[in-house]
Structures are given as structure tokens and as C-alpha cells.
Design brief:
The structure is a single chain. The chain is of the alpha+beta class. It has two domains: 14-174 and 341-405, D-Maltodextrin-Binding Protein, domain 2 (3-Layer(aba) Sandwich); 177-338 and 425-457, D-Maltodextrin-Binding Protein, domain 2, CATH 3.40.190.10. Helices cover 42% and strands 14% of the residues. A hairpin with a 2-residue loop joins strand 3 and strand 4 (49-50). The relative contact order is 0.22.
Length: 459
């Protein structure tokens, strides 16, 4: 999950939820229910309350394809949402697994004359690219109406190009969380840190207890960009963050040097990263999570950084969120703790009644409630009753996300052109993988980042 080209509309770039980081509760409670009827209208039931509903047309005999890069539980859970759409409309929906970068995947499909009807795009820049290439179709009246009713202006903006709505941000993510093995912390006498210096002290306490402090999924370059963005946003501040996201300042700027120097305090510390740099570079994101919560109080690492969606991978272990697996906000490096957000937007590639109906459904709370109950999911849809979330961790994060309204920023690499911020083995992903391998080469890393950014942004 990650949720590219820059979005200038509204400047403050409405892109990274500055969600109140201190609002995270860690206890778990079970939440109930959901429903949908056969006809075009159905209510999502939660705790006896009926959420706002949407009327959908009957689409018997029609079919459509939906492409996304989602795998595993994330894909399975989304298929349940699509199954409800099928039940309510009579349409047949096929999920098409896509590869990263999805723009390249879609390009090959379009060149072959077989594009999917709808694609879930994980970058604002990818939406812009799809519009510029003439692939994306504007949202129709019903989808736009549902979007306007259920989303803040900020979330509507990042799915729009030149003021016209193209994307429905169905899924959001709080990407400023550090998850930890509670038993390891208890054994070590470690506390949840609130500042970067405290994080370093906690890491040393864990290391002294005999457990490697951090698990890093370095095989997936996007996890490394997320690390950088959290440090940079907190340390350099939102104005610099906006400037770097738009390439209005260069990657050779002193603020980037400072952030890389800070990152090296963990990435460059001997034995602080599970498997060392080479091992981390061979560890994919899902494994970086599971190895933190497998092995009881002697896992391969005590902590793993990533977003709320980590819960999906924790579920693959025997650890329980809230007891065995706990979480704290990414500590403040500067004056304010960061919270970076990402998201995935539904974009129509083949304009049909069925595709427009699916976009309308995904813009409604009915769709989001289904996946919210399954865990590992946050919706920016303000009409979703937060009682749908299966535990207090996600419920609190969802409430904070909605409370942020339009005061948010998006994942920086997802605002960049795909060639720089979203392509395996290239651009920012590759430069930061090389930096993880050699954290002493700060100047060289900055030079490579700037050269790649200049080429991708066009100068």
C-alpha cells in the first residue's frame, strides 16, 4: 500500500493528514454489524444505526473490471466490497491485480486495447498523469454529488485536475506510526518515546536487552520514502515540505542533509536494523511486520515503522493488536510530531453506467463501512460511522483523520512524478535504498536525488 506530479490547487497542498498524533488509544473493543439488500438501495448497519445510503441502478448483464495493486488481505477485503456492489446492482465485477507502477501497467493495458473500467490509483500525480494522457474520465453527476456530500474539500481537491473531479479517495492511511512488540518492551523496561531523542534511547534500551530495535522493509523503496517524509516534515516544517514536494527547492538543500543525517542515526547504527542493511534490503514490507511479531519475546526486531494498515499483516501472526502489538505516534523530530497520509482513489478509465455506478458506490459510506469492519483500513469519508471500525486504535485514528478536515498533507513521494517518487529501482526509491546501504554517503545521496528529481520534474 502507498498510497505523483505535484498538485498545486489550494497550495497548502492538501496532502498529508496532519492528524492529532496524540489522539491514539490502544485498547481494543469489538464492533458490530453490516447489511445490504438485493435492490438498488441499502443501508450499512452499525450498532443499530443506519448510515447514509446511496441508490444504485440495476446493471444486470453488465460487467466491469477494477484494477489495483492490492494483494493479500487488502485485496480480499476489497473484493467483499465489490461483492456487495454486485449484489445490489446485478453487475459482474472482476478484480484485476496490477503491478507497480500502476501507470505503466495501465499503459500496457490501454496499448493492448483492454484497459480496466476502473483503476485504484495510489498517487495524486498518477491521477494527473492519467488525465493528461487522456485515459481518465471525469466523474458523473451522481458520483460527484456523493463525493461532495461525504468528503471534505481537501480530499475532493486531490482527486481533481484543473478543478474537475476525477478520483474518489476511497482509502486513506495514517503513515506516521511505529508498532512495537509489547513483550519485548516490557522485558527491556522500555517506554513509548515522544521525541526522536527518546526514540534513540528506547532503541538502545531494547538493544541492551538482546533484541534488535528496528525491522525495515527496505526491499520496498516506498517504506524508506515514508521514513524520510516523517523526519523531514517534523524537522523542516510544513512550508519546506510543500516546497520540496513541488521541487521548488532542491534535494541538495541543507534541510534534506539534516533529515538524512537524522535518519542515519538509526539506519547507520550497527545492529540497530534487523539483518543489517543487506538484510533489510532483502526484506519486503509484509515480512518486516510479521518478523516483529513472530517469535514471542525474541523476535527479529522490536519495532517496525509504517501506517495503520500494518494491522492487516499483524493479523497473519498470533499477536493481538492492543496487547501483543502496540503502537505509538512517530516521535517529533522538530517542534511538532508528524503525521503523513496516503490514499487510493478510484478513477474511471472506461466511461459506462456500471463504472460510474461503482464510483458512486465507493464515494458512499456504504462501501467504506464494509471494509472498515474488516480492519487494516481507514476512510476519509466523513459520513462513515466510526463505530464500524473493529478496534479503538483504528476508530481513534479515523476520528482524528476526519477531524483534521482540510488541514492536511499527503505523502510527498506520491505527489512527485511517478518516475521519481513511485517506480521500483529508480528515483527516490532507489536513492534511499542506496542510502540505507551506505548511510555515510549523505552528499552523494542528495546529488542523486536532485539529478533524478530534476529529470522527472522537467528541470
Amino acid at each position: 500500500m502507498r498510497t505523483n506530479n505535484s498538485i498545486r490547487t489550494g497550495r497548502a497542498a492538501r496532502t498529508a493528514a496532519v492528524v492529532a498524533a496524540g489522539a491514539l488509544a490502544l485498547s481494543l473493543t469489538a464492533c458490530g454489524g453490516g447489511d445490504g439488500d438485493k435492490g438498488g438501495k441499502s443501508g450499512a448497519q452499525d450498532g443499530g444505526k443506519t448510515a447514509t445510503t446511496v441508490t444504485l441502478p440495476r446493471l444486470d448483464g453488465q460487467s466491469l473490471e477494477v484494477a489495483a495493486v492490492w494483494t493479500g488481505a487488502e485485496q480480499d477485503n476489497f473484493k467483499k466490497v465489490l461483492a456487495e456492489f454486485e449484489k445490489r446492482t446485478g453487475a459482474k465485477v472482476t478484480f484485476v491485480p496490477a503491478q507497480d507502477p500502476i501507470i505503466n501497467f495501465l499503459g500496457s493495458k490501454i496499448a493492448g486495447g483492454a484497459p480496466p473500467d476502473v483503476a485504484m490509483l495510489p498517487q495524486p500525480g498518477a491521477i494527473k498523469q492519467a488525465v493528461e494522457k487522456g485515459w481518465a474520465k471525469p466523474l458523473g453527476a451522481e458520483a460527484t454529488k456523493e463525493l461532495a456530500k461525504n468528503y471534505s474539500a481537501g480530499w475532493q481537491e486531490i482527486g481533481s485536475v484543473d478543478g474537475k473531479p476525477y478520483g474518489v479517495y476511497y482509502k486513506a492511511a495514517n503513515k506516521s506510526l511505529i508498532w512495537y512488540n509489547a513483550q519485548v518492551f516490557e522485558n527491556a523496561g522500555a517506554d513509548e518515546p515522544k521525541s526522536w531523542d527518546e526514540l534513540l534511547a528506547t532503541a538502545q534500551t531494547v538493544y541492551d536487552s538482546g533484541v534488535t530495535p528496528f525491522s525495515v522493509g527496505g526491499a520496498d523503496g516506498w517504506t524508506l520514502t515514508d521514513w524520510f517524509e516523517n523526519v523531514y516534515l517534523s524537522q523542516a516544517g510544513p512550508e519546506k515540505y510543500d516546497q520540496l514536494a513541488q521541487h521548488e527547492i532542491k534535494w541538495t538543500d541543507p534541510s534534506v542533509k539534516e533529515a538524512l543525517t537524522t535518519l542515519a542515526e538509526i539506519w547507520g547504527k550497527k545492529d540497530y536494523v534487523a539483518g543489517g542493511p543487506s538484510g533489510a534490503l532483502q526484506t519486503e514490507f509484509p515480512a518486516s511486520v510479521t518478523q516483529t511479531f513472530t517469535g514471542g519475546d525474541q523476535p527479529k526486531a522490536a519495532m517496525v515503522y509504517e501506517g495503520d494498515f500494518v494491522q492487516v499483516n499483524i493479523a497473519e501472526t498470533e499477536a493481538k493488536v492492543g496487547t501483543d502489538a502496540k503502537v505509538f505516534p512517530f516521535p517529533s523530530v522538530g517542534d511538532t510530531a508528524p503525521v503523513v497520509s496516503g490514499g487510493d482513489a478510484a478513477v474511471i478509465l472506461k466511461d459506462s453506467e456500471a463504472a460510474q455506478a461503482l464510483a458512486t458506490f465507493l464515494a458512499s459510506p456504504d462501501a467504506a463501512v464494509i471494509q472498515a469492519k474488516l480492519g487494516g483500513f481507514l476512510s476519509p469519508n466523513k459520513a462513515v460511522d466510526t463505530s464500524a471500525y473493529p478496534n479503538e486504535v483504528q476508530k481513534t485514528m479515523a476520528e482524528a483523520l476526519i477531524a483534521a478536515g482540510d488541514d492536511f498533507r499527503f505523502d510527498m513521494s506520491d505527489q512527485a512524478p511517478q518516475a521519481f517518487g513511485g517506480t521500483p529501482g529508480k528515483g527516490e526509491w532507489k536513492a534511499l535504498q542506496d542510502f540505507l546501504k551506505n548511510p555515510k554517503d549523505i552528499a552523494g545521496t542528495q546529488a542523486r536525488l536532485e539529478a533524478d528529481a530534476a529529470a522527472a520534474y522537467g528541470g
